Amino acid sequence: QVQLVQSGGGSVQAGGSLRLSCVASGFTYRPYRMAWFRQAPGKEREGVASIYIGGVITSYADSVKGRFTISQDNAKNTVYLQMNSLKPDDTAIYYCAADAYVSRWADPSDYNYWGQGTQVTVSS
How far is CA 119 from CA 41, 43, 52, in A? Predict the structure, then answer.
């Protein structure tokens, strides 16, 4: 049974940094893709960043390029999202997601496994 458990997040002032973590368990095959999504009130869930577990390919939304970095620790089955230079527009609930067969990394419908979500609030 695949499980994704998130940690991190919280509140920070604009310009600050936060790091999110997502530990995956239950995957019996590689590679698989993991991604971070976010959803602000009244908005659709959007892809933020993605990485292949067992690979090196990363993808980012234009809105976070140069500020956010996705990385992995294979030994810990953990994916991180380092968020720097945070802006109030980054305020949202952040979710990690995973699946083996993903054709469009930023499309939430391509993922079957989701973390519990964590709130990120950036104040101006």
Answer: 11, 15, 24
Beta bridge partners, 70, equal 81
Can you read off the two tokens belonging to residue 70? 């996705």
Q: How far apart are CA 95 and CA 9, in angstroms?
A: 11
User: 100 phi and psi, to 5 degrees?
Assistant: -85, -35
pLDDT tens for 15-71 read: 999 999 999 998 877 778 999 999 999 999 999 999 988 777 899 999 999 999 999
| Planar angle of CA 17, 18, 21, nearest 5 degrees | 150
Q: Are 124 and 53 in contact (CB under 8 A)?
A: no
Half-sphere exposure of 9 (CA within 13 A, CB side): 19
Distance CA 60, CA 66 (A): 9
Rounded-to-integer distance, Cα 93 and Cα 2, Å: 21
CA 63 – CA 59 distance, rounded (Å)? 12
Q: Rounded to the nearest 10 degrees, how much is the dihedral formed by the CA atoms of 108, 45, 63, 74? A: -50
